[in-house]
Amino acid sequence: MATFIYTGRDAKGAHVQGQQDAATSEDIASRLFSTGITPLEIYEKKNQQDSFQQLLKKFGFGRPKLTDLILFCRQMYALTKSGIPIVQGLSLLSTSAHNEIFAEALRSVTEDISTGRDLAGSFARHPNIFNSLFVNIIRVGEESGRLDEAFLRLFHYFDTDKVTLEKIKSVLLYPAIVVVAIIAAITFLMAKVIPKFAEVFRNFNLELPIQTRLIIAISEFVANYWWLLAIISIAAFIGIRNYVKTDVGRLKWHQNKLKIPRIGDIILRATLARFARAFAMTNTAGVPILTGLTVTARAVDNDFIESKIHNMRNDVERGDSLTHAAINTKLFTPLVIQMLSVGEETGRIDEMMDEVADFYEREVAYEVQNLTKIIEPILTVIMGLMVLVLALGIFLPLWDLMKIAQR
């Protein structure tokens, strides 16, 4: 809920102003019209705390997590199963929600339902929390009178999806931490340790080998121009981040992620597992195939694969079979294509897509385990080579210095 300030004119033409709490400015306008007031201006009241909270929201702080949505679906299943009215259940959950943004969204949904809006439409007004997949499953459950089953399906889907996402993160996190640690260690050596050795070498007028001179030159550059390197790094980070936010940049980034050796294959299989699981759920819930492909394409969180699924949907819309459309995407293995073909021929697409999701998830688990075993020795060798280069660059002149001292 937010506080809105309004100005308007009543039925007699008199100027009126005031403030009210509501979810949106449209709600304020509806209230004013119902009381005979024609609104002229409506704007949200801001204060310093609200501005700070909005800034935090902009950078992603405080946003609802997937665990919030999982818990909500599980609780809504229990409430609808026991026959508690939707408005009462949502009101209860909004007061117990730990995340303020999520609680605010639930209060808004509760108010919308109270004014006559359908449940799916109320959720759809908060796309950053309830995506199109969620909304369509709820809409089917609402129309069929089986909301409890809809919330249970969503709970199982998001719970499984959370495990898949954690596997993807674990694949990327470990190498990233090690690489950052290596860069930090080398930067420290270059900025603090190497310059002291360089000073000693200069005092003795030693003739330094090429690798030592190169290391010292890099070290002096880092020590003297660290601020420039920091500015370049920050500018590069901001530039890349802003580019990835564009449609073209995001598509390129998502496509290139899939080309990373070993890691790209894991990301692809995990993403296809998410698609298969989501599509199976929409099919089980009774969502039409074309609609199911549309909403699951948005749920995969990869623009490149999303574009392939949209192509798949377009092929089906033109009359192709689902299997043939899947072949055209060139994303699925022959085994998966065969499973999909059997499901389409027997009318059990939902069951087969669940099997496909299980197949991909097993492969992801196996590949993640193997990747961890492969990455550790590779990173160890890389670190060893870098240390060796630094050691030779420093200890060779020290060896010459010891010879001079013995004479």
Please, could you describe this protein's structure?
About 75% of the residues lie in helices and about 5% in strands. It is built from 17 helices and three strands. The protein is extended, with a radius of gyration of 30 Å.
Strand content: 5-15%
Cα-atom Rg, whole angstroms?
30 Å
**Can you tell me the overall shape?**
extended
What is the overall pLDDT average? 83
Alpha plus pi helix count: 17
| Total count of domains | 3
Q: Which structural class should the secondary elements be placed in?
A: mainly alpha
CATH class of the largest domain: Mainly Alpha
Q: Give a quick account of the main beta sheet: strands, pairing sense, barrel closure.
A: 3 strands, antiparallel
Distance between the termini: 84 Å
CATH homologous superfamily of the largest domain - what is it?
Answer: Type II secretion system (T2SS), domain F
Secondary-structure element string: EEHEHHHHHHHHHHHHHHHH
CATH fold title of the largest domain: Receptor-associated Protein
Summarize the amount of helix as a percent range. over 70%
Quick structural gist:
By secondary structure, this protein is mainly α. 77% of the residues lie in helices and 6% in strands.
